[in-house]
Amino acid sequence: MKLKVGFICVHNSCRSQMAEDWGLDDPSGGSIEDFRETKNLIKNKVKELINRIRMNEFIAN
Fold this sequence. Notes:
Helices cover 38% and strands 23% of the residues. The protein has one helix at 32-54, and strands spanning 2-8, 15-21. A two-stranded antiparallel ribbon has the order 1-2. The longest helix is centred in the C-terminal third of the chain and has 23 residues, at 32-54. 0% of the residues are buried.
């Protein structure tokens, strides 16, 4: 599963995009536990991404 994020750079008003492959499996057809595990992985990855953006630790195209 890939996530592509578009965002506005607030400091210099540029438009940037970044793409990351989080290596998540598609939980379709699996158990509710599989869905919950994937949901939690996504939640944690988003939190990490927010922190990296706040700390300017990301690579933008």
